[in-house]
Amino acid sequence: MSAQQTATLTFWPALRQEATFWCQGEGWNWLFMFKTILAALLAMGISLRFDLDQPRTAMVTVFIVMQPQTGLVLTKSLYRIGGTLAGTAASLVLVGLFAQEPELFILGLALWVGLCTAGAAFYRNFKAYSCVLAGYTAAMIGIPAALQPQAFFALAASRLTEVTLGILCAGIVSDVIFPRRLSDAIVNNVQNRYREFFAFVRAALVGSAGQGELERMQLRLVGYMISLEAIRSAGTLEDPEVRTRDLRLRKLNSEFMAASTTFHSFRTLLQRLTRNATPAGRTLNFLYELLGETLVLTGEVPRTAREAQRAARGIAAFRGVLQRRVEEVRISFTAIADPLVQMDFDTAVELLYRFVRELHAYSRTYATLLEKEDGPKPPDDVRFVSRTDPIVALLTGGRAFAAILLVGAFWIASAWPYGSSALTFVATVCALFTMAPDPSRAARKMTLGFTAGFFVALLFKFFVLPSLDGFVLLCAGMVPVLMAGLFLSTRPKWADAGAGFVIFFTTMLAPGNPMVLNPVAFLNEGGATIMGILVAVLMFETLVPAAGNWLKHRLARQLRHQVVMACFDPLPGLTHRFESGTYELLYKLASTGQENNAKDQQLLSWMFPVIEIGHAVIQLRHDVASVPMSRTISDRVQHCVSSTVKLFRQPSALARCAAIESVADCVVLLHSAGEAEGCPTLVRTVLRRMQTSLHLIRTALLDEEVMLVTAAVAPAAPLTEGIPHVA
Amino acid sequence: MSREFTLLDALVPSLFLAFLLSVVLQTVLDRIIGRYGVYRYVWHPPLFRLSVFFCIFGVCGLLVLR
User: Fold this and answer.
1) Complex ipTM, two decimals?
2) Which residues of A touch B36 (CB under 8 A)?
3) Which of A63, A242, A359, B23 has the most Cβ atoms closer than 10 angstroms to its Cβ?
4) Domain enclosing residue B49, as ranges
């Protein structure tokens, strides 16, 4: 009896624990599924009640718009309405101009969709989304309208009504029933990132993780940066609370980037020094471990503002300790007269100081984020800049253009009665997947979903539907099928397939008043649609594939161009612009995938010198501008900057050699200027800082492992002979 | 007021105008309520917002169709 009692006693708490665990993870997915189905059925019910043409358009809209977070739904809805209006207007123009001329009509449509697709590839986030919509709405409305131009107005009006209805249903359901706030997602993102960043720094300092592990951690951190930027811009629509914190969130992101860049430079420098077992490296390791210990002590992730304040104070206190330790260690160095060893040491220490300073700023902003806003507004100069390649965007547009022309030509040449369905879907798929990181993979997955949806719809429509009578039974019949599809769409791996399944199932089922049951038309239309999708997939695979070399070369070029930007752009706000652009490129490069082969590795290896050198150049330019300098110095620094630019514009062993030489000359000049009599202390400090920046550039340029690309052009072995102990 | 009016020769239900008007009214009201922090005393702000919208739209619609 007592054994049974203890069993029941442990059973219930365990069950409750399990249930809470389920609710926090999987529970959200199921809630999302139920909400989506509710919104879709609501949209279907209302459209059937009001006798709209195609209840399926409203349902499909719900599936497309629905997102786990309310703020995303609202933002997406707004842009969707805008995109739909633009697409309708475009189709009005096309039908008005070319209703009699199918060739010209298809050409015009292809141009419009191509343009919109290019826009989608060029912009980011929701702007891109409305471009996508403007593109395929024109196809969706324009093609049926061109077949019966007299009915254009009614058709366009009813499509608009259905889309708006779908949006309203999705918005209301997701906002009213168990809303999941985007602000929670932001808090989550910020907290997770804070924790993971500290874990990353700790792992790197203690050496508990391998190189590959560290790189993965770093990429994940970059992912947090990009996703915070995305949800932040969406969250402003949902919640006034987010709007007031907006600036601080952006500031947090920028400080985070600064800290991780500095940490990265520091770590690479240290690796280079320890690899060759230089005296500086050994001593620095000691400081390094000291930092690691401090961070481990403050290791708990602060959840409240006060805890974060305490962590920030801990870091601030460490700055004092660090200063004392550095002075102690520096004494042992003055014995070694070699200026290069000194320089290594000074550079590393400067970087360490900077990192601790930035870490402190980051922790402080993190702490204030949890408090209410008060006090005067700080200046707003933090803008996230994303880099997109206009040529790649144009090519993406050209791909959509070619795909539509191809199918359109086939339609006209063969007088295919269902060509319009194929054309509609080729346009839709081309536009829809421009934003995906790997469009061909996403499109392939979705094709799988489409095909499955087609067969299930076939069975459902002709075997199950005839025996269902009334709206309630129709809903009851559809729910299990939709559940299956939506379940798949909550799994990240199968999300595209699940979405495709649900969308195509509803499209083919086409619930209506009265229901049209025509198996021959069903098969023909389904076949034509799948063919259209397959053509689009084929285009994704063959024309400028995302995993192809050309695209990666473009990315690498853009990456190198970041350094050019760091050298020439106006200084205010440049650091943040440089970092946001570079990290976004890194993210894109990493998400295009499989960096297994040597060639990709080589491209990715550009990344690290770009971050280091770009950052150092910006520091250098800031320092030159901060105090008045003599003409010779500023000219020489300018020469350094332009020789670096030359290297990054056109990488070659020769340019690299010239850059290294010019940097080395400049260091010597600055050194003698700093040692000269009568030099004010302030100028001397600035000169010392400039020397460390230059030294950092030089070590990065000398690093053979990093500078693989130029090394591949021509072996640069004799180059390092003069300075053997760096590199 | 009549149930439909013509906009560039297309018939538009006057209820649509009422809808747009209530959206504008609701947005203004929402800003005012949010400014004075009334939403803190409301159990479920989105539901409250929706209900307010329905009230406004109901009144406007009934006035239009009277």
Assistant:
1) 0.87
2) none
3) A359
4) 4-65
